[in-house]
Write a structure and sequence with these properties.
Length: about 270
């Protein structure tokens, strides 16, 4: 039976589309930018000596091992819980994390590179520590203090609220795609804001989480589609590092090179 003039079966006879059930979002493994940022903060420097432009920063040896641990976790999942596709930031450290994880897991999946998953753009404050921003752009440090970390947008850059807008678009597209299980490899602020949206958090709550429970390198967030939730999502796991500990791989909680390194999180 078909609907007259369309050649299609009636809606009740059509097969139900595949719908998203779960997606897992690891932060990238430790990067050369993470270690450079930590060193600059510890030394009280104004500038972060990053080895490449932000999109090209690579994983450290430890970061590669952390990514492989994500793969070990994937390999132990039941077949119906393994990702059918990988959405990834175009930045090298995130793409490498996904590639190494799948290599270690022993299976492959199509990649979807999406620039909305990139790290936060710091504009004129890129490669500066918080001390460096205060020295070079005291008026910007004052403006950030007034507006707060969530809404402050450096000239030429993005606020956390800007990144949240990108994140909302990605979440809508992931939910609409015909994949039941998805792996998303991205960055600390992006993954944190996934949870911010999924949990319906406010500014104060997400900043407090960032300050007290910031995402570790290669830590996993697991988010389920939940039509009974007011947001449509439920965060099942946040900042999960058991896979790293099981592999006896060092857990690191290092700042990104594209954040106000050495500053407060208020």
């Amino acid at each position: 039976m078909t609907v007259p003039g369309t050649g299609r079966p009636p809606r009740a006879c059509r097969p139900s589309p595949i719908s998203l059930a779960r997606w897992s979002a690891p932060r990238h493994g430790q990067s050369q930018g993470n270690t450079a940022a930590e060193s600059a903060a510890e030394a009280g420097l104004d500038r972060i000596d990053v080895p490449a432009r932000d999109p090209d920063v690579e994983l450290t040896e430890l970061g590669a091992a952390q990514a492989a641990s994500v793969g070990r976790w994937l390999a132990h999942l039941p077949a119906d819980q393994r990702p059918g596709v990988v959405w990834t930031s175009p930045y090298t450290r995130a793409r490498s994390t996904g590639d190494l994880a799948l290599q270690r897991a022993g299976f492959d999946a199509p990649r979807r590179v999406d620039e909305r998953l990139r790290d936060r753009d710091m504009g004129i404050t890129d490669m500066l520590t918080a001390q460096g921003i205060r020295s070079a752009y005291p008026e910007e440090a004052e403006r950030r203090s007034w507006l707060g970390k969530f809404y402050y947008r450096p000239p030429g850059g993005e606020s956390w609220a800007d990144v949240a807008q990108r994140v909302r678009g990605v979440m809508t597209d992931i939910a609409a795609a015909r994949d039941e299980v998805v792996l998303v490899t991205a960055h600390d602020v992006v993954n944190l804001l996934f949870c911010y949206v999924a949990e319906g958090m406010d500014e104060q709550a997400v900043l407090e989480r960032s300050r007290t429970d910031g995402l570790r390198n290669a830590a996993l967030c697991i988010i389920d589609r939940d039509h009974d939730s007011p947001t449509g999502w439920t965060v099942r796991e946040y900042n999960m590092t058991g896979h790293l500990e099981a592999d006896d791989v060092t857990v690191t909680a290092q700042p990104g090179a594209s954040d106000e390194v050495g500053g407060d999180d208020a």
